[in-house]
Amino acid sequence: xxxxxxxxxxxxxxxxxxxxxxxxxxxxxxxxxxxxxxxxxxxxxxxxxxxxxxxxxxxxxxxxxxxxxxxxxxxxxxxxxxxxxxxxxxxxxxx
Length: 95
Known about the structure:
By secondary structure, the chain is mainly alpha-helical. It has helices spanning about 1-10, 20-35, 40-50, 55-70, 80-95. The chain has one domain.
């Protein structure tokens, strides 16, 4: 909870109320897709998306990925594919 409050405070600080940059959009897209952003942050993100073809394309790619991955059955993965996905996830977790 404290981390969320710190994040909100940093987002709402006076110097941060301007337009957001592409890197921030990438950080916020999961929350955006899950409808978990505060209204003001969502509006800033949507304003950025309206004017940035690169971030709009990235959002479209994320939506396609979500759609396609929702159709993958774990039983349809080969042991090698399953192992690769687990390894990628572990690498992502450790940064």
